[in-house]
């Protein structure tokens, strides 16, 4: 086993209120300079929606991530739109590269027009001007342009995740009275198999060996932008002013000082968790080349139990510090992903093995329980009464699990996002979230019997202690419970910057032959 440590994150989508405080905190600290106006390292999207940049999930357009060659177990993967051959052919003209209109043209306003306008009958206005050309422009898009516009034909109905949903399922999502949406915050996933690192012709991108954070060396970057194409999440940006690529750095100076990243520290909904996960790097290539149906489970299996004596021994033998191992043992991300089985990666089919996981939103299921078609009675459960020509159904604890299939968001949609199309994985996690709610209803209100509560926990594969622990970490956790940050070891950082021969030392991720061998 080649045990490595990786900083990983959890975003609990049931708690996100879409306030964008995380985006502003990140913008104020890292992307407040010229050329970075459209570089939203942290952005919050409304789902369903096309996201940022527009339709970033559609790899038929952008050619991001990896693709598997062949159908056997020993098959390899190749970059979909980058790499040595493809990159050389597209180095001066890359048709898969997002253009500025896929983001938005950075703009400001001529505020002096308001101050210097002559007196007159008309209200003076400040015309928008492009920050790139300096010429007046008509604003057609901007940051979070599709925010809260679920149901509109321009955004939500063009969501790539709707592709395999039936017309009836899509229409049910967009009925005004039952309109549903949720927020999807996104940062760089700091993947185990980062396509951006493998695609860079100049070797400017690297994965830090001590914590797995993916960074861009600005001195090495030559602005080829292959990393922008290769990243399927489009979280690498090209700064039009400096001619360099930039991306989320996971606030590594803050982490090294024991502080949470800015987006996580400022989160109003407290949806974010950060911790260490230990994994077996020897299995990365094998897992990334898995059949699509096995990708998510194999991704989970690559992460190891930090309390296992054999794992601890192998980690120490590989140079992982005791403080990092202790952090992994207390990691909230390990609990959500492995111990409780609540969180899933975003778009595993891109094969980058992202290390940012999402607890899928349970969303209110009650809104879709009423059906106007009495022919559906057998599917929906017993009718309790008829009101205003709408059939209402039994929503007791006995029937509530059956309603998950009738939720306002089809499980197929959630599966397209978080489980490579596997609806059973989504169902299992929603059942666990529902079971915790039922259990807590029994504990705090008492209108649910102990028998029904225990039945719900058993069905979901949880114990009362696990439900209490989930409730605590979700609802009551203190700062140090949500962010278990390993101590920084300056001696390791110095060692990584040492020279070996006439080339710089470690390029991250354990490569020590210099910048020419960065990648996977």
Please give a structural write-up:
- The chain is of the alpha+beta class.
- The chain folds into 3 domains: about 10-255, no CATH class; about 270-365 and about 405-480, 2-Layer Sandwich (Alpha-Beta Plaits), CATH 3.30.70; about 365-405, no CATH class.
- It has 22 helices and 18 strands.
- The chain has a 4-stranded mixed β-sheet with strand order 12-1-14-13. Strands 2-7 form a two-stranded antiparallel ribbon. Strands 3-4 form a two-stranded antiparallel ribbon.
- A hairpin with a 6-residue loop joins strand 3 and strand 4.
- The longest helix has 22 residues, at about 425-445.
- The model is unreliable at about 365-395 and about 500-520 (pLDDT under 50).
- The tally of domains stands at 3
Uncertain segments are 365-395, 499-520
| Overall shape | globular
Gap between N and C termini: 18 Å
| Strand line-up in the sheet with most strands | 12-1-14-13
Radius of gyration: 24 Å
Number of separate strands? 18
Helix content: 25-40%
Structural class: alpha+beta
Largest sheet: 4 strands, mixed
Helix count, DSSP H or I runs of 4 or more residues = 22
- The mean pLDDT is 84
Roughly what fraction of the amino acids lie in strands? 5-15%
């Amino acid at each position: 086993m080649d045990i490595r440590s990786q900083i990983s994150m959890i975003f609990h989508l049931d708690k996100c209120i879409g306030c964008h405080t995380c985006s502003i905190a990140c913008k104020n600290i890292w992307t407040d300079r010229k050329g970075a106006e459209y570089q939203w390292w942290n952005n919050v999207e409304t789902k369903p929606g096309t996201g940022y940049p527009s339709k970033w999930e559609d790899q038929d357009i952008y050619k991001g991530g990896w693709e598997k060659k062949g159908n056997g177990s020993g098959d390899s993967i190749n970059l979909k739109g980058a790499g040595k051959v493809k990159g050389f052919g597209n180095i001066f003209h890359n048709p898969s590269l997002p253009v500025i209109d896929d983001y938005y043209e950075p703009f400001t306003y001529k505020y002096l027009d308001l101050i210097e306008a002559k007196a007159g009958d008309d209200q003076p206005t400040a015309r928008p001007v492009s920050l790139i050309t300096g010429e007046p422009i008509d604003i057609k898009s901007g940051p979070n342009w599709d925010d809260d516009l679920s149901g509109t034909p321009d955004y939500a109905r063009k969501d790539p995740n709707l592709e395999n949903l039936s017309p009836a399922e899509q229409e049910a999502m967009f009925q005004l009275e039952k309109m549903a949406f949720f927020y999807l915050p996104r940062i760089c996933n700091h993947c185990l198999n980062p396509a951006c690192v493998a695609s860079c012709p100049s070797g400017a991108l690297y994965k830090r060996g001590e914590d797995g954070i993916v960074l861009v060396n600005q001195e090495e970057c030559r602005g080829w932008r292959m990393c922008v194409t290769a990243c399927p999440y489009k979280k690498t940006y090209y700064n039009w002013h400096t001619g360099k690529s930039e991306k989320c750095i996971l606030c590594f100076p803050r982490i090294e000082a024991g502080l949470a990243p800015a987006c996580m520290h400022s989160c109003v909904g407290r949806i974010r968790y950060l911790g260490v996960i230990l994994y077996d790097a020897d299995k990365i290539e094998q897992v990334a080349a898995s059949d699509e149906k096995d990708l998510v489970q194999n991704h989970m299996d690559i992460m190891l139990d930090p309390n296992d004596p054999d794992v601890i021994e192998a980690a120490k033998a590989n140079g992982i510090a005791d403080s990092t191992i202790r952090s992994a043992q207390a990691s909230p991300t390990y609990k959500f992903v492995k111990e409780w089985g609540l969180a899933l990666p975003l778009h595993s089919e891109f094969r980058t093995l992202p290390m940012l996981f999402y607890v899928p939103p349970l969303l209110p299921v009650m809104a879709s329980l009423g059906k106007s078609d009495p022919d559906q009675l057998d599917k929906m459960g017993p009718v309790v009464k008829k009101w205003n020509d709408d059939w209402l159904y039994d929503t007791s604890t006995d029937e509530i699990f059956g309603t998950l299939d009738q939720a306002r968001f089809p499980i197929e949609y959630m599966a397209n996002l978080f489980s490579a199309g596997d609806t059973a994985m989504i169902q299992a996690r929603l059942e666990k979230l529902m079971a915790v709610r039922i259990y807590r209803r029994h504990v705090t209100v008492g209108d649910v019997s102990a028998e029904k509560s225990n039945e719900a926990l058993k069905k979901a594969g949880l114990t009362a202690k696990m439900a209490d622990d989930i409730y605590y970490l979700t609802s009551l956790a203190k700062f140090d419970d949500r962010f278990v940050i390993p101590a920084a070891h300056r001696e390791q950082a110095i060692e990584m910057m040492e020279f070996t021969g006439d080339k710089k030392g470690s390029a991250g991720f354990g490569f020590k032959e210099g910048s020419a061998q960065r990648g996977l």
